[in-house]
């Protein structure tokens, strides 16, 4: 069974707003750039979004985050 990313993300997303997730992604990309790593915006947004889904899933399962 395959769930679309958007269907999975809705109930399991962390409490962060999309604008907050974008701000965190931009901040993280800047930190990585200072270390010499270059990550494209789509890659950073995907990683931070996936992390938000994991956090939301852990909270939904009453797991510590």
Automatic annotation (TrEMBL):
Superkingdom of origin: Bacteria
Protein's name in the database: Uncharacterized protein
Organism: Streptomyces candidus
């Amino acid at each position: 069974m395959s769930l679309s990313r958007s269907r999975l993300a809705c109930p399991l997303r962390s409490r962060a707003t999309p604008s907050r997730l974008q701000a965190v992604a931009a901040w993280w990309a800047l930190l990585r750039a200072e270390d010499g790593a270059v990550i494209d915006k789509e890659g950073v947004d995907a990683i931070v979004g996936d992390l938000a889904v994991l956090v939301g899933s852990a909270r939904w399962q009453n797991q510590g985050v």
